[in-house]
Specification:
Strand order of the largest sheet: 8-7-9-10-11
Distance between the termini: 6 Å
Shape: elongated
CATH superfamily of the largest domain: Urocanase like domains
Structural class: alpha/beta
Largest sheet: 5 strands, antiparallel
Number of domains: 2
CATH topology of the largest domain: Rossmann fold
Amino acid sequence: MAPDPHSTELDFLTNVLDFYASLMCFAGSEGLAGAEPGLGGRFLYAGSLDGEFRALVIAANIAGAATLAASADPADAKQAIRDGVVDFAVTTLDEALRILKNELRKGEAVAVCVGATPETLKAEMYERGVAPDLIPAYRGCTAALAQDLAQAARRIDRLPIAENQALVTWSVASAAAQWLPRLDALALACLDTDAWIERRWLRLAPRFLGRMVRGLHTMRCDPAAAERLLERIKLADLRCELGVAVEVAITRRGLTERHRFSPAGPPRRTA
């Protein structure tokens, strides 16, 4: 099998998708008829901005939660703002809570980073009686403190793709800002009307992932939807509607098929 040129980006995207799938298990529509389910009005304490927790914050943004994170490194916080991972970097828990309470009341997504170590922030949250609705499955924190914060909170860990789902990725060789939205639109058209988790992902993921994952989009879906997307891209290629080289990869039960389309020639399939 040929190496995937987007392997690092895809690994990161998969982490975000795993957390998103877990978070959306707790989604609701706030009792509004026709409202898209999400985590509006839910408070997530995500821990640090390192590694997998960064992926968790992005997944929470897409799911619609109000998220609190911590980083004692100002450079990391600034980079997180530049990447669109967090919206605000503040110095105290009081500042963070003012922002979070306002957005929680409106049911809007927001991510706030406090300039402190996760341990310091967790201890202050406990002392102040700040109780998140959602927390990560803790790694590396004291059992007692984790129990204090987790008494009424749901624990979030990565939820791997199910055996009855397909992972579909599509990438372009150039002009991603022009062509990826067109491919996203084809993907949306292939989803069932009740596939609201996938629809929300396709609509919002590019907004929060755009700076970190260039030229590559992905989704989990029913295998039939994956095949419909592949057929639509094949048809667009036959109609000479693709102005850029496109690769589509469909992974099911650990096996990946890649299909490459070029404006200058017929599609090619590789294992």
